[in-house]
Structures are given as structure tokens and as C-alpha cells.
């Protein structure tokens, strides 16, 4: 379904994110017919480029980042014809009148801030000063949204001086993933899961975001952040919220976000013994360098890995811990949420040896999909012996090619901005609440002077992270 015609300005249009995600994503939406021929995209950045040179760079990013079968020369040419460029310094006054002149009345107007957060305030202010934005315009802001509560508040305040909350779209691209949205459909459109979606039936939840990449090349930048700020406070918190939240009364932006906020507010403070931080080290067989080398900081105490046990103090979840872990340079690239159910109250079978817990696994990557581990009788004449098999819900079989053709998170989220749907964007109070939870955790290890535990590159993380589960009589799922 086509969206309304729009004027979309991308501040930072020549940057890495615009080249890799935003512009190729818009091309794909154009190819699909969702972005129509009366929409415009305007790159805005400091570089003094001609419109032609910018279009050429967009052509190159399509060639590099769009799958070959989707590169159609006629469509690419038409798409480039809808692209403009204006040289603008966020901190200067040049270029703004030209940008204003490019805005067409009656179109949806959106401004994507794909620049360093330090420039958000400058851009927001000048959009108003020069009359480029109006009371209906939308702004899209990238991560990181602050590095603690104080800076997130300051960012919210500066944006609020010029835009209403209903105009502000804070991106968390995890929320744009197909499976993440499917999680809401599965929870709230089926009667099966919701009655057992609580501490009484769920033993614990594991959320894993494992990466194989290291931080080489951007280590100095990463070192100021670390896994807690880079992954947990935002992406993993959002996943936790979608699993833990109460059913919203309607699939409506504020109804959904109200429920997520309640979850964040119900999170307990995390005890020091429930936190494991790690840093990768080089190993002879895996090659590469250590985190300390990549971060260009021999004294670094920043974590490239973190595991946490998180408790939610509310009626639904009291007694069901959520274990979160994320890290760089691990054994495999794998993101999943695993919901482990409790044992049946009583076993009627003599041979209980093959018994394992039911687990609902929601895979985010690779192979987005869901899997439910269930017990069945082991086939054959061996008597009543139990074995566990996956009830596979990787939707490819049922949905055919549609399932493999899902738009990337950025594509979907940008279309949501144009449609004016904020459901999959973080509200200001949500972000602040997440920082209010994260801040004391970070301040705690800083005050104690904790050092991260070293782990081997290509392993599944530090030893202590295994203990975090073992001491509760549980174990992490393999990172495969
Ligand atoms: P980048 O350094 O590659 O690009 C920055 C862009 O900002 C360039 O187009 C540059 O011309 C423009 N710019 C810089 N100073 C300017 C000024 N004074 N006035 C006008 N334009 C100016 O950065 P990036 O990697 O594209 O990241 C952009 C934003 O997206 C950042 O907030 C980043 O944290 C966020 N982000 C990036 C990625 C990614 O994969 N690159 C992922 C998630 C979030």
C-alpha cells in the first residue's frame, strides 16, 4: 500500500548509516511501489556537493548494499530523479533558506537526524528558526539517545523546545525487525500463550545478542560506551519490555508504550553479583587483536560483553528472572529470546530421563522465526520414552516466498514515520526510565573499580557468566 507523498530530508545524508541503510532502504520501498513518484528525498550534509554528485553517491550505495536481483536500472534512474541535495552546516545559517524553498506544501514532511547526537539541538533549532519545519513535521532521531539519564533528559528537553512528542520518532531498529513485531502478534492474537505467560508457568527468560564482529576501527568510540550502553539500555530493554508487558488495550502507539514504561519502572536494581562484564582477548588460533588493542586504550575497563540477571517486581513476573547477555567477538552471530517453561507438576512416566523443559525460542538472527520445544514419545518399540523435538514455526514453509522477502527494519520504520505511526518508536519517558535503571548499575561498577573478565575471542563469553546461571541451577543455551 503506497504511503502519502512526502518530503524527507536526511541530515547526514552522506554518512555511513545513510549509505548503508537509509538510502538503500528507501530505494527498496520505491521499487515495491510503497514510495510513490511524487515523493522527494533531500540529502543534507556539510560536504559541498552538487546534486549530481550526491545522486551518484546514492547510486553507488544502491550498487553496494541492495541485493543484485533488486537492482533495476530503470527504477534506479527514476528513484535518483527524486533525490536532491543541499549543503548545510548544522551549526551555521547557510543552506537553510535553500532547504526551505525545496519543501512543498501539502506533503508529509520528515527530517531524519542521521548525525552525531551533539548536533540534534542545532538542527532542531534551525529547522524552526528558518521556518523549514511546521507543527506537523516529523523528526527521526538516531541512537545513541544519551549516555546517561542526565544527557538523555537534556536531549529530550532540547527537542521538546521545538517539537511535540507526537512529532518525535526515536529509532530503535530492533523494533523494526519482523520477528520482534511477530512476538506481539503471537502473544496477543492467540489464546494459547497468554494464560501461561507468567511466573507461575515460566521458569526464566534468556535474551541473547551475540556478535562475531570486534570493534576494530571504531574501538576508540566504542570504548566510551560499552555493551551496557550500546545494547542493553536500548535494544535488549525493548525486547524485555515486549515479552514482559501487559496486554495493551489496543495496538496503539501510546497504549503500547505505556505498558512498556510500566515494565521498565518495575525493574529491580541489579545486584553487583548479578552482573558479569567481559572483554575479549586475542587467542593464538583465532588471530586478531584484543579489545584493549582495538580500543586504543591499554587501561580500558569498558566491557565488550555483559551478562545480567534482571528481576521484575510486579504481579506477573515475581520469581521469574530475565537473563540478558550480549557481546562482541563471540562464537557465532545469534540473537534470540528463549522462554523456558516450568516442569509439569507431576510426572506420570516411569522413565523421566529424556524430559526437558518446554522452550519457546524467538530467533531474531540468523533465520528469523520461532521454535517451540515440546516433549513427545520417542518413536519406535522401546516403550514410553520421552524425547524433545522442535515444533518449527519458521514461517517460510507456510508463507512461501513472502516470508523471505520481509523489508529490513530501517525500511519499515521509515515508512512508519511517513504514516505517522509511533508504535515502534521509543517515547521520551521510556528512554529516560531505561537510563534511570541503567545509571546506578554503571555507576556501581565504576565506583567499585571493577575490571571486566577476559574471555577468548570466538568463545561463548567469560567463565563467570556461566556461573551466573549455574548457581541458579540453570544454563545458557548454546550460542550457535
Ligand atoms: P557518519 O560520521 O558516517 O556521518 C555523519 C554525517 O553527518 C555526514 O553526512 C556528515 O556530513 C554529517 N555532518 C557532520 N557534521 C555536520 C554538521 N556540522 N552539519 C551538517 N552535517 C554534518 O555517521 P553515521 O555512522 O552515519 O551515524 C549517524 C548517526 O546514526 C549517529 O548518531 C550514529 O550514532 C547513528 N547510528 C549509526 C549507525 C551506523 O551503522 N553507522 C548505526 C546506528 C546508529
Please tell me about this protein's structure:
The chain is of the alpha/beta class and 480 residues long. The chain folds into 2 domains: 6-142, NAD(P)-binding Rossmann-like Domain (Rossmann fold); 175-470, Dihydrodipicolinate Reductase, domain 2. It is built from 15 helices and 15 strands. The chain has helices spanning 16-31, 51-65, 73-80, 96-102, 120-129, 149-160, 178-188, 219-222, 226-244, 253-265, 291-294, 396-399, 409-419, 428-448, 463-470; strands spanning 6-11, 40-45, 83-87, 108-113, 138-141, 168-170, 202-210, 275-281, 305-310, 322-327, 334-341, 359-365, 369-377, 386-393, 453-456. The strands form 2 sheets. The protein has a 9-stranded mixed sheet, sandwiched between helices. A 6-stranded parallel sheet has the order 3-2-1-4-5-6. Strand 13 and strand 14 form a beta hairpin. Helix 6 (149-160) runs antiparallel to helix 14 (428-448) and helix 10 (253-265) packs parallel to helix 14 (428-448). It is globular, with a radius of gyration of 24 Å. The two termini are 38 Å apart. The mean pLDDT is 94. Bound molecules: nicotinamide-adenine-dinucleotide. Nicotinamide-adenine-dinucleotide is lined by residues 11-18, 45-47, 88-91, 114-117, 119, 142-144.
